């Protein structure tokens, strides 16, 4: 028996093991950078709307660092092996997308599009769900990021009142309602997405309670 076959197999296993460790290191750096960006964006909850532009400017370097981390992943994983390792970085990429979605809302009061995600992160969203010919952000990751925005909006509605920005909760309520209506048009088959979508109603309720309290106190018409 030719043992060279097993020697070659071990070499391939070693290469794969090395690649996995490199991917883990890249993901670790991505998570670290996302936490830093999240901490900077979180300051938007403690200032009125008029001051959010300063926060967006401050977080811009962190988004550049996030893009660099994702670029490192792109360089490590060949498209043919994308789904083989995809589960390793999916949560980290979801978090990065969620940061983009929140930043775009803070800056422009609109929903982040797949084009925005590509502009910030350097990877396109695979909205067609076609065969992978490059490193992409999956449609599910993009939708998870949009769902994450609801929790940020509910928190922002409460904190806006705390900083005496009374009009903002009304804007948030209108936007969140429109976004929720959009999600209701989707027939979500993915279990994870479905569970998270079902939780949106609690964030909507929290935003409506803020609106109700303001109206009862006569602070808004």
TrEMBL record:
Q: Which GO terms describe its molecular function?
A: RNA binding; sequence-specific DNA binding; single-stranded DNA binding
Recorded hits in CDD domains, A to Z, give: Translin (cd14819)
User: Which compartments is it annotated to reside in?
Assistant: Cytoplasm; Nucleus
DNA-binding among keywords? yes
**This protein's UniProt keywords:** Cytoplasm, DNA-binding, Nucleus, RNA-binding
Biological process terms from the Gene Ontology for this record are: RNA metabolic process
Any single GO CC term annotated in Swiss-Prot or TrEMBL for this entry: nucleus
Location (main, coarse): cytoplasm
Q: Name one Pfam family in it.
A: Translin
User: Which family does the UniProt entry place this protein in?
Assistant: Belongs to the translin family.
Protein name as catalogued: Translin-1
Provide the gene name from the record.
tsn1
């Amino acid at each position: 028996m030719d043992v060279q076959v097993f020697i070659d197999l071990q070499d391939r296993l070693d290469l794969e093991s090395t690649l996995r460790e490199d991917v883990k290191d890249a993901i670790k750096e991505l998570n670290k950078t996302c936490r830093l960006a999240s901490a900077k964006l979180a300051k938007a909850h403690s200032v009125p709307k008029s001051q959010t532009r300063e926060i967006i400017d401050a977080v811009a370097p962190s988004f550049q660092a996030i893009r660099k981390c994702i670029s490192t992943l792109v360089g490590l994983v060949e498209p043919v092996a994308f789904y083989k390792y995809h589960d390793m970085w999916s949560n980290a990429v979801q978090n990065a997308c969620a940061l983009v979605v929140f930043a775009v809302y803070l800056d422009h009061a609109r929903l982040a599009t797949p084009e925005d995600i590509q502009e910030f992160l350097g990877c396109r969203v695979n909205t067609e769900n076609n065969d992978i010919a490059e490193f992409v952000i999956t449609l599910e990751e993009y939708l998870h990021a949009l769902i994450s925005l609801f929790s940020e909006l509910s928190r922002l509605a409460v904190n806006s009142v705390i900083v005496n920005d009374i009009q903002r909760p009304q804007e948030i309520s209108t936007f969140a309602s429109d976004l929720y209506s959009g999600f209701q048009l989707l027939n979500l088959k993915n279990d994870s997405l479905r569970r998270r979508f079902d939780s949106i109603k609690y964030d909507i309720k929290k935003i409506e309670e803020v609106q109700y309290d303001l109206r009862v106190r006569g602070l808004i018409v």
